[in-house]
UniProtKB/TrEMBL annotation:
Residues 1-22 form the signal peptide. The keyword Oxidoreductase does not apply. This is Tetratricopeptide repeat protein 9C isoform X3. Keywords: Repeat, Signal, TPR repeat. InterPro entries: AIP/AIPL1/TTC9 (IPR039663), TPR-like_helical_dom_sf (IPR011990). The gene is TTC9C.
Length: 148
């Protein structure tokens, strides 16, 4: 890392002395490290949304949980290198994911999709139960109205 910093410093000095000196590697390095930080931030935000979704799920707030899982998946959108890009080679390409980042990405995606499915089923059951309860109340009222 020290040699890279030294090279960056020297290339900057050379570009000041001779404007024709091309230090594209230095600019690419800075762009790449910026993209790496953005990628790290998106992975962290996705994990945070997933944890918030888990908390809402434990509280029985399934609709809020679904919303948080969706937000987590939106943060991860576009980071997965195994998915094809809709328009390849358009715009800057992001840096490759490290194996650790790729593991975090796939684990978070899998957890979010599984939790999303479970929360949707629970929400459906919750709505179905309230509809059945409402139906039984109407049935009782009808019965009492006919014979009461």
């Amino acid at each position: 890392m020290k040699s890279l910093n030294l090279w960056l410093c020297c290339s900057h000095i050379l570009s000041l002395i001779s404007p024709s000196f091309n230090c594209s590697f230095a600019s690419q390095f800075h762009k790449s490290s910026g993209r790496q930080r953005v990628m790290e931030k998106r992975l962290q935000e996705a994990q945070l949304y997933k944890e918030k979704g888990n908390q809402r799920y434990r509280e029985g707030k399934y609709r809020d949980a679904v919303s948080r899982y969706h937000r987590a998946l939106l943060q991860l959108r576009g980071l997965d290198p195994s998915l094809p890009s809709p328009i390849p080679n358009l715009g800057p390409q992001g840096p490759a994911l490290t194996p650790e980042q790729e593991n975090i990405l796939h684990t978070t995606q899998t957890d979010c999709y599984n939790n999303l499915a479970d929360a949707n089923v629970r929400r459906y059951l919750q709505l179905t139960q309230s509809e059945l309860s409402s139906y039984h109340q109407k049935e009782k009222q009808l019965y009492l109205g006919m014979f009461g």
